[in-house]
Structures are given as structure tokens and as C-alpha cells.
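Hi D.,

Good news: the full-assembly prediction came through. Inputs first.
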Amino acid sequence: MAEQKKRNPRIESFILTLKILFQSPASVFGVVVVLFYIAIALIDQFDPSLIGLTNVNYLTPNFTIPEPLPPSPAHPFGTVYPGIDIYTGILKAIRIDIGFSVFVVVFGSVSGVLIGIISAYFGGWVDEIVMRITDIFFSIPYLVLAIAIGFFMGRTLLILSVGLIIIWWPIYARVVRGQALSIKEQTYVEAARASGVGNTKIMFRHILPNTLAPIFVQFSFDLATIVLTLATLNFIGFAPSNSFLPDMGYLSAIGYEYAVVGDWWTIVFPGFGLLLFALAMNLVGDGLRDALDPRLRR
Amino acid sequence: MIALVENNDEKRDPLVIVENLKTNFVTWKGVVKALDGVNLTIYKGETLGLVGETGCGKSVTSLSIMGLLSPTEGTIVEGKITFDGNDLTKFVGKDVWIKEKGKKAKIKSRRRIYKKAQEYLNQFRGKYMSMIFQEPMTAINPVLSIQYQLTEPLLHHQKKELATRILARQKVKQEDFMAIKNAIMSENKEVLKSYYDNPIYYSLIMQMNSIFYRKDLTLLQKNELIDELAKEKRLSSFRLKFLEDYSNGRNKIIYRLPGINGYLMRTINKEAERRAIELLRMVGIYDPETIIKEYPHELSGGMRQRVMIAMALSCDPKLLIADEPTTALDVTTQAQILDLMKDLKERTSASILFITHDLGVISDMADRVAVMYAGNIVEIGNKMDIFYNPKHPYTQGLLRSIPTEKTMKEKLHVIPGSIPNLINPPPGCRFHPRCEHAMEICSKEKPPMKEIEKDHYVACWLY
Amino acid sequence: MKLSTYIIRRVLVLIPTLIGLSLIVFLLTRAGGINMIIASYINPHLPYAVQRAMLIKEFHLNDPLWVQYYYYMMGLLQGNWGYTRTAIYSGPVTTAISMFLPNTIQLSIVAFIIAVVIAIPAGQESAVRKNSFVDQFSRFIAFVGISLPVFWLAQILSEIFATPTISPALNILPLSGTVDATLMAGVPWINSIGVSSPTHIMMIDALLHGDLPIFFSSIRHVILPAATLAFTSIAGIMRYMRASMVESLNQDYVKTARSKGLPEKVVIKVHARKNALIPVVTILGLLFAGLLGGVVVIEDLFSYPGMGLWTVDAILGYDSGGIMGTTIVFGLILVTANFIVDLLYAWIDPRIRLGE
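Then the structure:
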């Protein structure tokens, strides 16, 4: 038999995942679009002048043009009351929306995964309590709970993000717990314990890596969901109309009254900005799920 | 089903002829050439044992014969399978095929033709050829009752026979009934044979036999039960007329009308249930009326396997493929199931293809044995010849590695090396890298099958 | 475990969940500060300070939290859920709930039925014809469905079906309310906001009163919001059904079924699908949660007088009573839905139904 080079199995596995992922044109499209959005967000953050933006924290109004203008060379996506250029508005909004989403999902997933693994590993009453708590969070539709949190605790982005983190960690805790429970029963965990490996090490070196696959998938889907949730919250009124918050939901909210009388661009473009990102992220997530599915990796 | 077959037949009739069967699978790492020209013949009424290591292609062979290969994973690429004169490989290459582009390969299928191929095979599957799988836990549908799963093939393939069974009990005249009964109880085969042509009498004989061959009854009880067959409540003449027409294949329009159809079919359904209970008893389940209402998860592994055997034998197939039926069971249950199968073997005229890796089981069950290695049949012959006069180095190695009293004091004999990678199999004879008698030609050309004794074939350059 | 044990367990789990629900809402209201809580009770014509002192005393707002919680729970259990002052309605929260909840239920159930009826067969066909055009197309639609902002889709569908912008020919559906305004005029069993009696579900009440024009009009009014709402759920259900069906088709028992020579249709319908539906039922509860969230936006956009519209008005009007009431009710709906799903699951899976 030919001699096999000793390669780190984790790296090999990672490369195989990428290979499978890039086989599907849909996933490739998703990845490209997502990278594009991330690039814009980063540019917004560090050097907005690169794409001609000045103030990234506010949409710049121009009260001399109160009525929305249709798309034109000066305003590629048109304008909306009060004179906000939709094109630049969207570019600015990308930073806020994606930044918000990443913040929420990262913290939500990390805390959820930690709690989930501990809960699954130690079992007993710890597990019971965690399960009941997650049950409680699952008993309220997340949008409704987000509304309640935002309403009572403040309508700032920070509070909303923390609120969403609190709403979101139970999902990760459940996902990880399910995986960890089945892994825990496997013999190699028993073997590790029998040879005296400490609890922390078992949890993080043995169990955690094998639970990561569905977590990555959930992560991708959630990035899309949170962006849409934030936009929806702003749309129904959490961003007051004088805040000029760069956010695609907010843009749509202002534009809505004009859209119903025929100024279609005021909603179509911001909505499309959301749709494109969410679609791309969902495609990536789905591609990841197929790529990580052990059965398809034979 | 319970056949009165003479086992002294010299003239052997082939039931299944497999010629040069090649089956490939497509995986990420490449094309797996699982079967590389398998040649086999199964004769009517015999049990052929198929032995080999895990991964040598035994299961793939059986799946290929039944046409159960998943079109997204693998397909037959070449070869011919003849079943009782029918070409099962009519659609090979047309419904599913593998396209190779340099290093990459893709498996493609044409839905319409694949559907036609499956419809064609469905004529045989279940009715003339059936299969028992290795894992009874997963092979039976967990959400359907045992009754449903047992009556399913019956209602599908044997509605006419079911109708005939009812007629047999209803319409046979007293004199004939007593004559047959006496013949059965005195095991007078001559008399019984004279009744064979008439399907109604034949069915009655079968029903009586299934009572007569029960192991849990005394002769007196059997006598009573057989008498009960005739004491069934008389059905209405309309129903009888329906059953007569139906058993002859005439399904008149009036029978198909919505309300009437339901009413008439109920009789057939009940008969299917009755037959299912009979089948369960035949496979050694002593409380079939209770079991039949239950679900698979309520049964033990051994019982599930019995149910699978019952399902497979329900329509009296000519070929039964048993794919490692006992591997997943514990040793005691294994012994029970094997006993059951030996018993059924005697009572049926079906051919059995018994697949296993356990040589002990083969020596018990099989008439002829075929040894398989890495996608090829390397030796095939009568059980005695194979066990006492193995010719192929692989067979010899296999037999040598069985621990016996003599070898207890020595190190266990092991065939050096391991099974080859089937994506890039070794050229020529696939066994040559591990063979102690390997010659130059072995690495260049594949040896053909040669008959070295009567009915004993080997594929090796040594001969 | 036996079936009865399973059910009892599920009921027992309900209790901490309900307590937790009430606790969360309670804590949130207290987090907003005293002023927010008493806002809807203040009569603007009377001196503020005096009222504030009185209200603090009445609601024990200066007492320790657990005392407050006790009175809060007592209030809830006795039917005193506070007051709401919103554009759409001002008055006791319980009355508001009785008016708006049935409409929301009507909307959610219609949407749910539409979603399930479309998604499950679509998911099944997608799996059976894996990678075919039908499959790719449905998956594409599914993806778009879960990526769409709900308000966007509502806007587009309204543009197509409710306004003459795209094509006057398609302008067949109305844009607001539960029933055509002209038909409502003078009908004694519909009140001024558009809520009907006795069941408050317009479709049923119309049938009860034998008023067919209103019945059909109410169907026309509910179909667009329900379809919009359903669209996002369809995607989720279809994907899950497809995955579940693919998994089911790969199982050994499907091979066994095929080896029995059964026609493919039977194999798919009876053997594969039955098993595939079981995991799908488990996520139906989760999906219903998303549906309820969408209700808020949909009712706002289509001016449909239900819990969602009330919620939005409460947000804009800083009405804490309303938010509190709607949050609890949405929570109760979801808990009930989840419980029903659990029962359904136990019923259709014989492994649970018969114990062992």
C-alpha cells in the first residue's frame, strides 16, 4: 500500500468541507454576496470616504427635496422623504444592520453553546433547570418578546441587541445540548473519563468539536434572521421617525407612506438590500449544512 | 407453499443465472468497482451459500439481483441477470449510468426509464423473489402495524389466491374434503398429487398442510382444526359468485362500484389477515393473534427477524435472498432463526441465496457454496467439495483461520494483508497481493472460472 | 413511558413555563419604570402628582418586588389585566383581548392551513424528485421565502392584488379590515371598530347570522394577509419536510418495501411519508411561533383589527398596558399551540402512543 502523508485530519476535513461547499453554484453566489456586504460594512467602519460616504451614523437629510424622487443618475435608487438618497442610505445601513447582527449572533451563540454543553454534560437538575428556562423563552414568539424588551427597556440599538442576545441563546443551548447528549453516550467519552481526563477538558476537547457542525449552520441562518428582525422592529416603529437611523427597516418605514401612492423605489430598494443579504446568508447556511453532512462526505 | 417435493432430482434447472455482473458506485473519492464480473447460478430448490469478508460485495450482489440499488449511489454497469427465463437487466445502462470525466465521475439517471425499469422489476419482487435484510430493527417500518406490513404483499400480489382459499373452504364437497383430509393425515402423497391441477383443491391441501405441520398441536387438535375448515359460515351467493369470478381474474364492473367494492374487499382483507396469522405461526411465533396487532418496536430482535421472514415468504417466492439474517442477533436467537430456516427450507420448494460471513452457518444451511472476494466469485461448488477440498488460496486461507481444537495451541492463522481499495483495485486477480502462490500472470490477467471437478469451479491461475 | 405518563409530564412542564412567562412580563414592566406603568391610568385632566401617589399605593409600586409580583399574579388570575390606551381602542385590556384575539386566531389558522397544505406536498415531491427542476425551483422559492422581509412581501402582494398599479385586472382583493366597509354599515352585530359578535370571528359570525355577502367578503379580506403570512412559513416547513423525506427514503424499511414489489407510489405515500411527517410535526410548534411574530407586521400593514395591530399601536403610543397584555396573550397562544403539537406527535408516532 502506498505511504500516506500524515496530514492533520481537522485541516483535511476543513478543506473537504470547502470543496463540497464550492461545488454548488448557489453557495458560491451566497459566499460572494456575503463577502461583498462584509466588505462594505468594513469600509463604512474604517474608511467611509473610500466609497464617498461622510457621516455613517446618520442618514443625511436634505430638506430642500421633501418629495421622494425617482431613480436618476444623481440618485441611483431615488430619494425618500426628507431628501435622503436611498443608495447611500443603504450603504450606510449595511454597516449597522450587519454589525448588529454579528454582535447579537456571536454573543448569543457563544453563551448558548457554553450553557448547552454544561447542561448536557452535567445533566441532573442543572439540565432540568436549563431546559425549563429555554422552554420559557420558547413560549413567546421572539418578535413579540423583542418588542416587549425594547418597549420597556429602551429603544436604543444596544438594548435591542442585548435583548435579542437574551432571546437567542436558548436556541443554541438546545441545539448543542441535543448533539452533546448523543455524543456523551459514545464510548470514546467514557474512555476519556475512565483514563482520568478532567471534566473541562472532556467538554471542550472531546465533545465540543463534534457539535460544531449544526452550530455553524444555525449561525449562518441566524445572521439572516436577526438582520430581518432588526429591520422589522425598526419598521413597525422602534426607530422614531426623527432618528435618521441608517437601517433598511427604517428606510422602508419612512418610504412606506409614499410607496402606497406609487413611489415604489422607496421600499423596493431597501427591501431588496435586505433580501439579497438574507438570501445569500441562507444559501451559505444551506450549503454548509450539505457540506458538513457526514453522509454526503463519503 | 408446503411442497411435497422430491429431493432426489438429478436434473437441475437453473432459476437465476448471473453472468459477468459489474456494479459500480460513485463516491467523492472516486468510482468504486464493487462487482467485477460476478458469475453465479442458482438452481431451483437449492440453497446456495455466499461467503466472504465484509466489503467483498455480497450484499451488493443481492441488491443488484433484486434491482434495489439506489440510483443516486450505484448501478449495474454491465452483465446479465436471468431469472426464470426473464432478463432482469433489460434496462441496464438506459435508466441509470455513470459518466466519467477524467478523474471525476457522476451518476445520472433518466427518471422515466428508471420508473419503467422499476415497474418491470416489481412484477417479480415480492411475488417471485424476495429478500430478508440484516438488521431487523431498521428494516421493518416502525410506524406501521405488523398486520399491515404482513398483509401488504398478500393484498398486492395474491388477491386471487386469497379468493381461492376462501372458495376452497366454502365450496369443496364433503366427500372430496374427507378424501383429502385422510390423504394428508396419512401422508399419502400419491392421492394428493392427483388433486394438484385444480387450484381449489390445491389451496385446500395447502391450508390443511399448514395445520398439519404445526409443531404446537397434538394430532387430535390438528384433526379438529382441519375439520373446522369446513365448518365456516356459509357466505352469501353474491359473495361466492364474486370470489369465483375474482379468482379467475374476472373483476366485473358491478364488483367495482364504490359501496359494493368495499363490502366485497372486506372478505379478501379478512382472508389476508387470516393468512398472515398462519404465516406468523409458520415462522415460530406462538401467539400470532396478539403479535399481529402490535408494532415493531414492541417486539424483540428475534421476533422481528421472524416477521421479516414471514413477510418474505408470504407470496411463495421462488427465490429467497437472505442477507446475513442472523448477524445482528445474539447467539441463542441466531441458533433459533437458523433452525427455523432449515425447517422452512424443507417445507418449501424455493431456492435460497444465503449470504453470510460465518462459515459455520454456511456449513449448516447450504447445499452449494460460493466464495467471494473483492467483487469476484473465486470458487464455487458443493458444500463438501468446498469444505474438504478447497482449491482457491483464499478459500484455503479462510478455512485455515477457523479455530479448531488442533489449532488451539498455535497462533491463529491469518491471511496477510487486507482487502484492497476497490476504487483502484489491483490489476489481474484481485487477490494476488495477499496470495502466497502468486505468479507473474496473476498480476496481469484475471483468471477465468474453470471446472476442475464435477460441479466444482475455481478462478485461479494455479489450475 | 406510557402515553398517560407522557401527557401528564407535558402538563406538568406547562406550569413552570406559564409561571416563567408571567414572571418575564412582570419583570419587564417593572424595568420600564413607574411612570410607564401608570401612564395609561392617568387622567390628563386631573393633577398628575396626586394621581401618581394614588396609583403607586394602589399597585404597590413601592413595595419589594416579590410583593408586587404577588399582587400582579392575583390581578392576572382574577381577570384584572390593566388598561390600554391606544389609537384603536381604549379600555380594559381583557376587553381588548376578547375583541382582537379571535381575529388574530382566524388569521393565524388560515395562514397555517395554507402553509401546511402547500408546503408538505411540495417538500415531499422535492425529496422524491431530488435535484430535478421541480426540486430546484421549489427550493429556490423556499429560500426567497425565508429571506424576504415580511413588510416587503406584503407591499408587493398588495401592489399586485390590491391596487391597480400592476394591472387593474388583478386588483381584486381589499387592502384593510376584515370585511368590506360598505357591507359593515348598519349591521347591528358589528361594532364601530370592526369587531363582530358573538364569536368575534368574522367568518363564523357571518355564517351564524346567515349573511353570505359578509362571509365571502371576509374571506376575501383574510386571504391576502394570510397568504403573505403563510409565505414565510411555507419555506421553513418545506425545507424540513424535504430533509425529513430524504432521510426517510434512505432508510432500510423503504428498501424492504421496494423488495416487496410494491408500486413506488405506495412506497412513498405509505412507507416513507408517514415516517417523514413525524419530525416535521415537532417543528410545527416552532414555526407557529414565527407565524405569530409575523402577525404583528401583517396586521399593521393590512389594517386588520387583531392583536398585532393593537401591539403596533401600543408601541407607537407608549402604552404599557397594551404591550403587557399582548405579550402574555401571544405567549399563551404559543404555549397552547406547542402543547397541541406535542399531543399530536404522541398520537401519530406509535412508538410513543403505545409506550415502551
